[in-house]
Write a structure and sequence with these properties.
- This protein is mainly α.
- It is built from 21 helices and eight strands.
- The protein has helices at residues 30-57, 64-81, 84-92, 100-133, 138-141, 144-170, 187-191, 199-232, 237-265, 271-298, 301-320, 336-366, 373-400, 409-442, 447-450, 453-479, 496-500, 508-541, 546-574, 580-607, 610-625, and strands at residues 6-9, 12-15, 17-20, 97-99, 179-180, 326-329, 406-408, 488-489.
- It has a three-stranded mixed β-sheet. Strands 7-6-8 form a three-stranded mixed β-sheet. A two-stranded antiparallel ribbon has the order 1-2.
- A hairpin with a 2-residue loop joins strand 1 (6-9) and strand 2.
- Helix 2 (64-81) packs across helix 10 (271-298), helix 13 packs antiparallel against helix 14 and helix 13 (373-400) packs across helix 20.
- The longest helix has 34 residues, at 100-133.
- It is flat and about 85 Å long.
């Protein structure tokens, strides 16, 4: 077991990080749980985002009930995101640690969002009471101003309560064991590790949890008593059925959520209660946020009608136009005599790219001297470059030899998705590599502990998850466009700028999204790199030895070269509106970042990197000695 990291305050040695034991300590179950909870999280994100989009787009759902439901979906999304990503990282990490500060932040958001959700469910019950018991006054009673106040109240109260509870936890001293018997920083197992008196914290936890659970549930119960009495007074069986159906989804959500929370919180923390709470916590942290959009869609007539109408509207819109089912890629040139030459040139470039990046991956894998954070990130850069080039080049090579240079509509969207996703993954991997160089040069003594395996895994997981989600969002905007006229894309792959020029529908949202997302992400990732290198440069200037300065500069040279080439072409490509000239220029620029850069990166990191050259020479000599 890892020894707890501690710092000294006065006469006490304080814990600065905790170890999360998670759901199980059996290694063979970790990958299974990772896949299971990743699927649950993706369903949760998809379901709740889908509910938010559906409510936003369908005017029939612009009512108080669905305004509260949208707020509940937003809460569930944040609620699950507060816990799940860290737990998924821990399933794949040997060192399952969380810093003291991150633990407090997780505690704060968990308590704040739980209490907010209590009262959001209570507000939804009150909304049903007004709708059923006072239907004629419903519109005037549940005005927009009142609805906003009814939503703002739970948020303000929840986040203030979370702050108060977190402050009580912050006042505790942790100086002994740092092992939390849970998969997130939960109060009951956390306070059992405290060296100081926990009476005030425990009392506060029981009072706040008990009061808020009871009072919010009391509002729900009183609302449903009046609702039941109103329903029983209805003479029409159809009216009673309709009234019950509007409450069914809410009652199911309340039962699942409150049932598990009462079991979890209204009891003192003991060994057995903590073990039970880990199982119960799975329900309200993962299952409940996943189930809510399913409950409100499968059991709600309005949501089902809105969803069918949205699907039908897209189908009708596409049917009204002569929908394009495939596109023609004009490629780099229309001169037939150049097609073979370009085929051979880009085939050679692609083979060099594959050989170089696969070779880099194999070299880093087999050579133990390269098992460091820097080369761990470099291996992922090589993997992304390989995928990046393979997303575009094979189809381009095929089109050089084909008369019919077509790509189907679904294949075009897939190519768009992977291109956008991989670009965003790569820009943040380059930013992570700059941060790694900052840690190595500016904090060399702490480098080994700060850039641990779990930290590196977290740093590399973030760009992949964010990049894939960004790619999905941008591709969905493209999917919503209608293509009914020309189908000739003036490019050698399905790129956004020339593609959106073919749309028959309004492209304003897509264009704005493209500029904002590309501009923000390129600027933000480049800012991380520039700040990292500013600190690196200042640190190098303080080095007295010329040899030390040269060595420090040499470790950054490869990365700086790769960053300069990559960002220069991307900024030129994306931060401008699509026009005829920009598309023509973009085709030339795109050659660099889709084919040349993925080929150059392994070359840059091998010829300009002493460690890689030595590792390569060692492997070649080993093969010669042991053929």
């Amino acid at each position: 077991m890892l020894a707890p990291k501690k710092t000294v305050r006065g006469n006490s040695t304080l814990v600065t990080e905790f170890i999360l034991l998670g759901l199980t300590d059996r290694p063979e179950l970790q990958p299974i749980f990772f896949v299971l909870f990743l699927v649950i999280y993706l369903i949760t994100v998809g379901g709740n985002l889908g509910m938010l989009v559906l409510i936003r787009m369908d005017s029939r759902l612009h009512t108080p009930m669905y305004l509260f439901l949208a707020s509940l979906s937003c809460l569930d999304l944040c609620y699950s995101t507060n816990v799940t990503p860290k737990m998924l990282v821990n399933f794949l990490s040997e060192k399952k640690t969380i810093s003291y500060a991150a633990c407090l932040v997780q505690c704060y958001f968990f308590i704040a969002m739980v209490i907010t959700e209590y009262y959001m469910l209570a507000v939804m019950a009150y909304d049903r009471y007004v709708a059923i018991c006072n239907p004629l006054l419903y519109s005037s009673k549940m005005s927009k101003g009142l609805c906003i106040r009814l939503i703002a109240g739970p948020y303000a109260y929840g986040f203030l309560s979370g702050l108060m509870e977190t402050m009580w936890t912050y006042r505790l001293t942790f100086c002994g064991s740092n092992i939390i018997n849970h998969f997130y920083c939960a109060d009951p197992p956390l306070i059992r590790l405290s060296c100081s008196d926990t009476f005030i914290k425990e009392t506060s936890m029981f009072v706040v949890a008990g009061f808020n659970l009871s009072s919010s549930l009391l509002i729900i119960l009183i609302s449903y008593v009046f609702i039941l009495m109103a329903i029983l007074r209805m003479r029409s069986a159809e009216g009673r059925h309709k009234a019950f159906s509007t409450c069914g989804s809410h009652l199911v959500a309340v039962t699942v959520f409150y049932g598990t929370l009462f079991c979890m919180y209204v009891r003192p923390p003991t060994d057995s209660s903590v073990e039970q709470s880990k199982i119960l916590a799975v329900f309200y942290t993962f299952v409940s946020p996943m189930l809510n959009p399913i409950i409100y869609s499968l059991r709600n007539k309005d949501v089902k009608i809105a969803f069918r109408k949205l699907i039908r509207r897209n189908e009708i819109m596409r049917r009204n136009f002569t929908s394009v089912t495939e596109f023609i890629l004009l490629g780099l040139t229309n001169y037939l005599e150049l097609q073979i030459l370009l085929f051979l040139l880009f085939l050679a470039i692609y083979m060099t790219t594959v050989a170089g990046n696969v070779g880099m991956l194999v070299l880093i894998k087999v050579n133990t001297r390269l098992h460091t954070p820097m080369y761990f990130f470099l291996s992922h850069l090589s993997f992304v470059d390989l995928c990046f080039s393979s997303n575009v080049t094979p189809k381009m090579l095929e089109n050089f030899l084909s008369e019919k240079k077509t790509i189907s509509y679904p294949a075009c969207l897939v190519q768009c998705y992977f291109f956008i996703a991989l670009v965003h993954v790569e820009i943040y991997i380059l930013a992570v590599m700059a941060f790694d160089r900052y840690m190595a040069i500016c904090n060399p003594l702490l480098y080994g502990s700060k850039m641990s395996k779990s930290v590196c895994t977290s740093l590399i997981t973030g760009p992949y998850v964010y990049g894939m989600l960004t790619g999905l969002m941008e591709t969905m905007w493209t999917y919503n466009l209608a293509f009914c006229g020309p189908n000739e894309i003036n490019h050698f792959y399905c790129a956004d700028p020339p593609l959106i020029k073919l749309a028959c529908s309004d492209t304003y949202k897509k264009e704005m999204s493209m500029f904002v997302v590309a501009g923000c992400n390129f600027s933000f990732s480049l800012l991380i790199i520039l700040i990292s290198y500013l600190y690196i440069f200042l640190s190098i200037l303080r080095i007295r030895s010329a040899e030390g300065r040269r060595k420090a500069f040499s470790t950054c040279g490869c990365h700086l070269t790769a960053v300069t080439i990559f960002y220069a072409t991307l900024f030129f490509m994306y931060l401008r509106p699509p026009s005829k000239d920009s598309v023509e220029q973009g085709k030339m620029v795109a050659v660099f970042y889709t084919t040349i850069i993925p080929m150059l990166n392994p070359v840059i990191y091998s010829f300009r990197n002493k460690d890689v050259k030595e590792a390569l020479m060692r492997e070649l000599l080993r093969k010669k000695v042991f053929p």
